[in-house]
Amino acid sequence: MRKLLHNIGKIWGMETSDKSFYAGVEMSKVQSLSNAWILIEDGKILDFGEGAIPESDEQIDIEGKELLPGFVDSHTHAVFATERSDEFVLRIKGAGYEEIAEAGGGILNSAQKLRDMPESLLLKKARENVKRLIAHGTTTLEIKSGYGLDLESELKMLRVIRQLKADFPITIKATFLGAHAVPLEFKGDRKGYVDFVIQTMLPAVIAESLADHIDVFCDRGFFSMDDTARILDAGAAAGLPGKIHANELGYTGGVQVAVEKMAWSADHLEYCGQEEIEALRGGVTMPVGLPGTSYFLGIPYAAGRNIIDAGLPFCLASDFNPGSSPLANLQMVWSLACSQMKLLPEEAFHAITLNAARALRLEKECGSISIGKRADFVISSLENSIRNIPYYFGQNHLYRLFIGGEEWNLNP
Ligand code: NIG
Ligand code: FE
Predict the structure, then answer these.
(1) Is residue 18 assigned to a domain?
(2) What is the distance in A from the centroid of ligand 1 to the CA of 311?
(3) Which ligand 1 atom sits nearest the alpha carbon of residue 80?
(4) Fewer CB atoms inside 10 A, N or C side of the chain?
(5) For a pocket test of ligand 1, which of 73, 75, 77 has the largest count of ligand atoms closer than 8 A to its C-beta?
């Protein structure tokens, strides 16, 4: 069965080479085709072009609208029990994120609520979160554990993510983040908790094949470079690549450990100077900025501009979570990267598409309009979408959405 999308005003983001990501000045160019069509077979792109249309079994009129690849969110915490708007208000009144965490709020607050919640209810809430992400154009999604912090609750979170993989047509990847914070039971014994993560949690996660990657919150007041190196080594020995939280709260060496351990990505980078940029150069680790977090916590933005100017690739993600970034909208991430990190709209577009796919090593499957990739398409309600989606910030510009070649109902 060949399905044809025709009367496409413009296709943005085709890639005909087998490029894995864009780096440096390459990030400022986006390819486009006008008056275009796309042929789909078995949920994948069979061909695309402009002008005269090929034969097909089914035709879908795109009404002259513009089409972009579905967005890729490579860093979220989309499974959580409840919002933390009480902490939002405390921060408005002057409390700091780290201060709240030290007082037992923050991640530990989320952990307490998640531990108390039955798996069925957690799943119900997580489904709503995933629907919200999809409604804003996300068609590939990473979700982390890390609000359980005991064996059963971490497994509960990861089982919820496994169920989400089965429930939704988008691609979902799971990351085991046992080392997100030291739970109360291990207060004052961080090393003991790291041993527990490595010796007890990780084998259980592996036994049920519940994770695709492993993560550590390597930062001031959370886990050290040594803890991170140990956990990444244990993950690698068990077949899990690393994707780490690094340099959100200070210059803590997280980027350097990530690069040394060949982590797939180092995420946050609110504190990223020349030493971190030098470390990234020549490594395989994708730098990932999370501007929703900087916006919401009022902390510095990652140095995306300097990273790209150094000739490196750069990726953006939402960090969707109840504490530091309740943002399920990559269009807003795109806009924040432009206005706050000084990325060009074109650069930020690649950062939420092909480069984000690369952060998950899914660049052969998604992230651009290329033959053989999944037919995941955002149909925009705007013209000149590459500029105008981040320009008209804070709104949802989805007109239609296709996931694996099937139209997703945006108004259920
Ligand atoms: O990526 N920084 C660590 N983890 C999350 C926030 C977690 C929370 O506050 O619940 C983040 O920002
Ligand atoms: Fe995060």
Answers:
(1) yes
(2) 28
(3) 10
(4) C
(5) 77
Strands 171-179 and 138-144, by their bridges, are parallel
Q: Coil, strand, or helix at residue 39?
A: strand
Burial of 72 (0-12, 13-18, 19+ CB in 10 A): buried
36, 162: one domain: no
Ligand 2 centre to CA of 245 (Å) is 6
Q: Which residues pair with 217 in a beta bridge?
A: 245
Tell me: pLDDT of 227 over 90.
Answer: yes
Domain of residue 223 covers 72-359
pTM over 0.90, yes/no: yes
Ligand 1 atom at minimum distance from 110 CA: 10
Same domain, 345 and 402: no
Residue 255 shares a structural domain with residue 397: no
Q: Would 412 be classed as within a structural domain?
A: no
Claim to verify: residue 23 and residue 64 sit in the same structural domain: yes
* Residue bearing the CA closest to ligand 1, atom 5: 324
Whether the CB-CB separation of 114 and 147 falls below 8 Å is answered with: yes
| pLDDT over 90 (residue 182) | yes
Q: Which ligand is nearest to the CA of 84?
A: 1
